């Protein structure tokens, strides 16, 4: 067993160990709206559910030299965003949105995705997604780095509306096999759902 002190590693080396170990990671494909009305979209794989009462989700959005990314800045300014669950049918387009564009450019337009109106928030969703969650900002917490240059923003959102494709929905549950979700691995690698199994919890 290799024993390693993270304090002896560079940021990049810690990143490689984390992203190579914590796998597969769910992906949040997040759309936000700038104050100038530009529809931004980007994928993030430091993402998960926090609680169901109320329904809260969290996304870690890295900064560049302490500067917020468009997603964090837009969510903070408007107080709203939409999270989509990427699947096999449109992952190539999601990948295109990770391009480094200026805040005046729309990744949705670049990837030729289809914007669709939301029900409870002003931010449009992406029609190609089989699942999308309209969210309002619960908290945005700067974390890591230094007080002057945080390393990331922890965006915590409260889900205020769900959109689930009819073919996935049955008796209040979502069919994972029909969703065909993707998980993030290290580097440029992704994972499909693969084989699943069940285990009963002990009494």
Automatic annotation (TrEMBL):
<dbReference type="GO" id="GO:0016646">
    <property type="term" value="F:oxidoreductase activity, acting on the CH-NH group of donors, NAD or NADP as acceptor"/>
</dbReference>
<dbReference type="InterPro" id="IPR012349">
    <property type="entry name" value="Split_barrel_FMN-bd"/>
</dbReference>
<dbReference type="GO" id="GO:0010181">
    <property type="term" value="F:FMN binding"/>
</dbReference>
<dbReference type="InterPro" id="IPR002563">
    <property type="entry name" value="Flavin_Rdtase-like_dom"/>
</dbReference>
<keyword id="KW-0285">Flavoprotein</keyword>
<protein>
    <recommendedName>
        <fullName>Flavin reductase like domain-containing protein</fullName>
    </recommendedName>
</protein>
<feature type="domain" description="Flavin reductase like">
    <location>
        <begin position="20"/>
        <end position="176"/>
    </location>
</feature>
<comment type="similarity">
    <text>Belongs to the flavoredoxin family.</text>
</comment>
<keyword id="KW-0288">FMN</keyword>
<dbReference type="Pfam" id="PF01613">
    <property type="entry name" value="Flavin_Reduct"/>
</dbReference>
């Amino acid at each position: 067993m290799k024993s390693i002190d993270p304090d002896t590693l560079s940021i990049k080396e810690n990143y490689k160990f984390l992203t190579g170990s914590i796998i597969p990671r769910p992906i949040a494909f997040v759309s936000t709206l700038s104050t100038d009305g530009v529809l931004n979209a980007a994928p993030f794989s430091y993402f998960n559910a926090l609680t169901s009462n109320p329904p809260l989700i969290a996304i870690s959005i890295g900064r560049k030299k302490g500067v917020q990314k468009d997603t964090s800045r837009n969510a903070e300014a408007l107080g709203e965003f939409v999270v989509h669950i990427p699947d096999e049918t449109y992952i190539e387009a999601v990948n295109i949105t990770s391009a480094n564009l200026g805040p005046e450019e729309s990744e949705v337009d670049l990837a030729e995705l289809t914007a669709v109106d939301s029900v409870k928030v002003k931010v449009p969703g992406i029609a190609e997604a089989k699942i999308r969650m309209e969210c309002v900002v619960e908290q945005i917490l700067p974390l890591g780095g230094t007080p002057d240059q945080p390393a990331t923003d922890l965006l915590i959102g409260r889900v205020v509306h769900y959109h689930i494709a009819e073919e996935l929905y049955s008796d209040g549950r979502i069919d994972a096999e029909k969703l065909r979700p993707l998980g993030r691995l290290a580097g440029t690698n992704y994972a499909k759902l693969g084989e699943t199994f069940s285990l009963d919890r002990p009494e």
